[in-house]
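Hey everyone, long-time lurker, first post.

I ran two proteins through the pipeline my lab uses and got sequence/structure pairs for each. Pasting them in order. The first:
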Amino acid sequence: MRPKASDRLTALVDQLDHLFRARPIGDARDVYDRVAPSYDAFRTLWLALVGGPAEEAMLDDLRAVLRPGSRVLDAGCGTGALARQVKAIEPDARLTLADASPEMLRRTHDVPGERLVANVLDLPFPDSHFDVVVSAWVIETVGNPVRAVAEYLRVIGEEGHVFYTFCSLPGGWLSHAGSTLLRSVIERRFAGEFIGPERTPWHDCERSHRLRFQGGVTTEIALKKCCDIRSEPPS
């Protein structure tokens, strides 16, 4: 009999335990340097369990705007899974991959493009440097999601696009209770959080959209340069 998805997730968490026993979890860079060898397996399972619809929505947005020569930043690129999708959609996109973890970035060696170690809270690029910024499952790991998205908006041009997915805190009690295991994995194993509405970088207008999936556990957001998000989360 095929194991349940929750059982598979529990088994994967058990396999990852040795990565965390040697020393306490530190900042996100430290965590992802350590989980890099096993990250692709977890990512595949995450998409199969809950993350797939949100990421597919992002890919649909990308298909609508990518053109030959588009300057694309994959912010928090991880092992390059999303960057490979960008190249599959538009092989002539001019891709830059950035991640705070050198070990994660090292696993993107097969992806054509520039790459650099960088924190999404302080991107080392001038204003209006890119046409598109994509960021999958990143802003929940950096401590200040609003600042991260403000940086994404800063580095796109006037006609640019920002697309990002993240773990979001579901509102209903049933979804909240049902997502306990997933939230535990993200929060304890991957230095992340499920972002509540009061800390969600978001601007409600005709230039943007927000799509929620799996009872609100995951979210995909699209913004334009002119979207005026909050500059800091509430204290």
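...and the second, right after it:
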Amino acid sequence: MHGNVGPVLLTESYRELFTALATCAAGLTGLLFVAMSVAPREGKPAQPAVIHHVRAASALVAFTNALVVSLFGLVPGNSAGKAAMAVGAVGILFTAASVRSIVTSRDVSWEQALRQAGLIALLLAAFGAELGCGIGITVNRTAVFGPELLGDVLIAMLLIGIARAWELVGDRDTGIVSSLAVLVGHSSAPDDAGDPPRPASGSSSRATPPPE
């Protein structure tokens, strides 16, 4: 039988990991607010407002999850399990609310909604793994959903938040599918499209001198 898992999370290795994660999450959260303040707001948006808000909020939720679990894990005598359970459940509810907002919005077409399936699946996997790790650590069953996996999930949260925050700078989707679609669209465009006409050679291209 497994012993108390709380001291495992308070070893020097895990304290260093949680300290690094908390520092990164706090710094990235501040940069996220800076990115939101300098993001371009003029012109026609590349996507509906509800999708833009969901993708921006997912970055904040991802950074907040990593920050909360790391800070609670550093409190003496605390285990990060309960914090992971709480924020993991909140993350799942946020994902469900995001799906409802996208589906019920009149400004979002079905094609645009389907393009968000990758982000929704990624968020559900991350928050679900975080919730599972919290349950596993709390009930002392850490064969799979233990502190090692929790550390990996928190790092993945930071990467998800960074990817979503980068979209705020250019106001465009940086996903793999969307990037491949852009590359294919550019490669399929004709090379001679939009070339300016060249001036005719010879005397016709010269200006007629004024009469004397």
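Reply from user beta_strand_b:
Welcome! Quick read of the second one: The longest helix spans residues 12-38. DSSP finds eight helices and no strands in the chain.
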